[in-house]
Amino acid sequence: MIRHCMDFWLTIKLALGFEFQRSISLIFSQMDIDTSRRNKKPRLLLESERERLEEFIDSIHYSARYSDDQFEYRHVQLPKNMLKKIPADYFDSSKGTLKLLWEDEWRALGITQSLGWEHYEVHEPEPHILLFK
């Protein structure tokens, strides 16, 4: 099922092309997301890597949504053991946490949310908690 979702999102992005990329750049600038903390481009999982993560997908916890005057937020809690199965190039070696993930990357990990969510931070004391807005 994850593979079908990834194929769907990739098809949409390819169809939208340059305009999509320009829109995403504008969104990032408005959301103050530090894109230097991401891979330069989405690093998709290999089939073997995806299979190692499937056992954890049903244990991913999604918080309720909360908001301030500007954004709506939520956090996603990955099972701690799942971090050991995620490929090393998804991690920021200087911090020991996940990098900020592109939508293609967090969806490949099995995180499912509606459109529009951006991974903007990792809770460093608990690196299995990803913050979205």
From TrEMBL:
Keywords: Cell cycle, Cell division, Signal. InterPro entries: Cyclin-dep_kinase_reg-sub, Cyclin-dep_kinase_reg-sub_sf. GO terms for molecular function: cyclin-dependent protein serine/threonine kinase regulator activity; protein kinase activator activity. It comes from the Eukaryota. One of its GO terms (biological process) is cell division. Transmembrane segments: none annotated. Binds to the catalytic subunit of the cyclin dependent kinases and is essential for their biological function. PANTHER family: CYCLIN-DEPENDENT KINASES REGULATORY SUBUNIT/60S RIBOSOME SUBUNIT BIOGENESIS PROTEIN NIP7. This is Cyclin-dependent kinases regulatory subunit. It comes from Aspergillus clavatus (strain ATCC 1007 / CBS 513.65 / DSM 816 / NCTC 3887 / NRRL 1 / QM 1276 / 107). The lineage of its organism: Eukaryota, Fungi, Dikarya, Ascomycota, Pezizomycotina.
